[in-house]
Amino acid sequence: MSDIITMVAPVNIAVIKYWGKRNEELILPLNDSVSATLDTNVMCAKTSVCVSPNFLEDEIWLNGVKESFSNERMQNCLREIKVRATVEKSVDDVFLSWKIHVCSENNFPTAAGLASSAAGYACLVSALAKVYKIKSDVSSIARLGSGSACRSVYGGFVRWHSGVKIDGSDSIAVQIADKSHWPEMHALILVVGDTKKKISSTKGMRISTKTSDLFQYRIQNCVPKRTEDICEAILAKDFVKFGEITMKDSNQFHAICLDSYPPITYMNDISNKIIELIHKYNNFHGEIKVAYTFDAGPNACLYLLQNEVPKILPLIQHIFPSSNPDTFVTGLPTHCEMI
Ligand code: 2P0
């Protein structure tokens, strides 16, 4: 039996959103995306992996519930890890033939637009890579589990290049800046709802790609410049520019969801109230101090500098006095690490 390898992997929250695929099977995106990786102390996936000649089949437990390992995406990840291990000759053939047991859990709501699949697949693939002693970049393998997972393989600020090659070999995540680059940057997660989303990201993307006119406009005319600009803003630590692009891209992503047919709604009234509050707050201060972004769910991620956290947090708790939304603050850092 192998050692039991346990890894934790972080959530990443995109500031330039990935929405739409050029190849569904290989999970190749139509546009580049950019994200920040959050601190694993607050939100993470934890996965333990073990292989043994005594195991009769590949098995997986997700949040304590046994799930099928026949899931195509998991199979693709495991197959590619074994291909890579064969190419790198990192383990012998007998080891490769042993079955695997996986145990994975998240410490935050699953499938409520909080990037749980990103952390989950990044963690699974990183743990498998450790077990099979793979040395090369595994972001392209994490991508086969869930597109956004490739960004969670790295810490700090990360860009996922859509790539142009048909086989997807250039569709990889690259770190723009590591966690030490902009230590003042913080994320505040406002949990508005923790129920499973009605339309999965995979399905939502499919509908938008086929039906939204705005979608084509975004891909061609907006994302390329925004991506370059936000990378520059990150490197220059220009929060005002970073915040403006982040909010505009979130708004455009949700506009595309509404422009899809039938329309897709991920945000709710509380999400919209949060947007209103942040604009009022920024207007009051005469410049952008806080930026919001929403993924495929109602929960908000606020990006802000550390000195702003004690100012906005009481305001949020005052305006939303119940536990809705729940809030938690996280610094940026970390990438997959072994525990
Ligand atoms: C993102 N989202 O960039 C965007 C913003 C949701 C909204 O990546 O089909 O779960 O597994 O590749 O990775 C969610 O998409 O979708 C996502 P698949 P995934 O974070």
Task: Supply the helix-strand structural class.
Answer: alpha+beta
Q: What is the CA-atom radius of gyration, in angstroms? A: 20 Å
CATH topology of the largest domain: Ribosomal Protein S5, domain 2
Could you list the spans in which at least 5 consecutive residues all have pLDDT below 50?
A: 329-339
Pathway: Steroid biosynthesis; cholesterol biosynthesis
Pfam families: MDD_C, MVD-like_N
Domain Diphosphomevalonate decarboxylase-like N-terminal: 9-173
Family: Belongs to the diphosphomevalonate decarboxylase family.
Q: How would you describe this structure to a colleague?
A:
- With 339 residues, the chain is of the alpha+beta class.
- The chain has two domains: 5-179, Ribosomal Protein S5, domain 2; 185-331, 2-Layer Sandwich (Alpha-Beta Plaits).
- Helices cover 38% and strands 24% of the residues.
- The chain is built from nine helices and 16 strands.
- The protein has helices at 72-88, 93-97, 116-131, 139-145, 201-211, 213-236, 239-259, 269-285, 309-319; strands at residues 5-10, 12-16, 21-23, 28-29, 33-37, 44-52, 59-62, 65-67, 99-106, 157-160, 173-177, 185-191, 290-294, 300-305, 326-331, 337-338.
- The strands form four sheets. A six-stranded mixed sheet has the order 8-7-9-6-1-16.
- A hairpin with a 4-residue loop joins strand 3 and strand 4.
- 45% of the residues are buried.
- Bound molecules: ligand 2P0.
- Ligand 2P0 binds at residues 14, 17-19, 27, 33, 117-118, 146-148, 201-202, 295-296.
